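Hi V.,

Quick status before I head out on leave. The structure for the redesign project is tokenized and pasted below; the design run finished overnight.
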């Protein structure tokens, strides 16, 4: 799958209030953990700048979420 598709799917997931788990996302989209981290960093910057929201890791649920 291409980068744009994966980023848009991750964006949609976060905007819909769901969380993203690393292993689940990497397996589903066939991306590496370093790639996942780059994508989350990109989305973090985007959400912070455009929406004024933060993406944080919720250790209790082991997933990334918008707060």
């Amino acid at each position: 799958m291409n980068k744009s598709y994966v980023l848009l799917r991750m964006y949609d997931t976060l905007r819909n209030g769901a969380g993203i788990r690393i292993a689940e996302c990497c397996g589903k989209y066939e991306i590496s953990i370093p790639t996942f981290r780059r994508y989350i960093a990109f989305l973090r910057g985007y959400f912070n700048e455009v929406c004024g929201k933060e993406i944080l890791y919720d250790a209790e649920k082991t997933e990334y979420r918008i707060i």
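Above is the designed sequence. The chain is about 60% helix and 10% strand.

G. will cover questions while I'm gone.

Best,
W.
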